[in-house]
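Weekly structure sync, notes
Attendees: PL (lead), two postdocs, one rotation student
Agenda item 3: pending single-chain targets
PL asked that the sequence for the first pending target be pasted directly into the notes so everyone works from the same version. It is reproduced below exactly as submitted, 434 residues in total.
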Amino acid sequence: MTKVKAANGKLGILTPGMGAVASTFMAGVIAVNKGISKPIGSVTQMGNIRLGKRTENRNPLIKDFVPLAKLTDIVFGGWDIFEDNMYESALNAKVLEQSLLDQIRPELEAIKPMTAVFDRSFVKRLDGPNVKKAATKMELAEAVMEDMRRFKEENGCDRLVMVWCGSTEIYMEESDVHSSVEKLEAGLRNNDPNIPPSMIYAYAAVKMGVPYANGAPNLSCDVEAMVELSKQTRTPIFGKDFKTGQTLMKTIVAPGLKVRALGIHGWFSTNILGNRDGEVLDDPDNFKSKEVSKLGVLEEILQPEQNPDLYGDLYHKVRINYYPPHGDNKEGWDNIDIFGWLGYKMQIKIDFLCRDSILAAPIVLDLALFLDLAKRADFYGIQEWLSFYLKSPQAAKGLQPMHDIFLQNQKLLNTLRHLMDEELITHLGLDYYY
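Predicted structure, written out during the meeting:
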């Protein structure tokens, strides 16, 4: 059995970015702790796990099976380019009703952002006054580390976790500065233009041994240097891009079509949303990051090279449109042109009217709790078992990420079983049939 340290003391969850997603996440946990609501959508809090044979009837809640931090032991903090406290941020985001926010107003007003690392050349549509100034990117990273040390001491935290909840940065590809820790640190000292703010946060966290998750399609921790550093400091990392709306639907529907051996000619997807994320993605350079994150899903699930008759000519198109009247309510339209027996054509239409931050908030919670668990279990490097939560899961170099949500879920649950020395569920053996 893997020895897991107990979740003693307080867990500080730090979010670079304290807008709609972070404020919804923090407000939700506070509301749950006060008995106002339930943590719907959180697998760690509401999900069950089967143990042993089906005839044994052992199906505990995940939170009762593995030693996760309790919600009442969480302390919140983070950074943002705007000075709003979390009550003001939540009001501005217009995700949650004011009647709910007023019930938790004192707790939210007490959470105020630290000055952020920000470079407008990576997010052109945003600007704010609450920004750090330093001569080099290494000095900015050291300032973030000092923020973390101070936060931990002032709040009496035993452990910290960082989850990126900031905006999507412009599209970047891995370059030489990202190839090793030595080159990355030299690049930080020399203000290399290929090191974005999200990577500065990731470096600061992993350098200090703080688990890090990336909720946007930014490079962030998804480079060789950060993987190398995570192994040096024995720190769990994972990215990238919270899987919430349209991509969530794709990872549910596409595996079903594949196992039924139905062909797909085309899959056209378009989104409209009006929050800060939509405004940022209205810039072509930032949209490119999101597009790449979204486009890889179908190819990995369907594997057209293995099934050319079914998926060899698949045309996949993704669009995102900024539409302010929708606010945080995101609408995803999918038109799927499929074909079946003897090549006869059919269509599937999906119109998913979802709430972006409502779907993302429990992902922030689960990633934070599971990464904290991983750290206490001495799991480090890329945590592929958390692929369930992300659009473009990070994988070891040379490996394709797994996108099928049902396989992702199986991997997550089996990792938890392994962690607690329970038999893995493979759906083989007589208990599967009876």
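Discussion points:
- The domain at 246-354 is CATH 3.30.360.10 (Dihydrodipicolinate Reductase; domain 2).
- The chain has a mean pLDDT of 93.
Action: rotation student to compare against the earlier draft before next sync.
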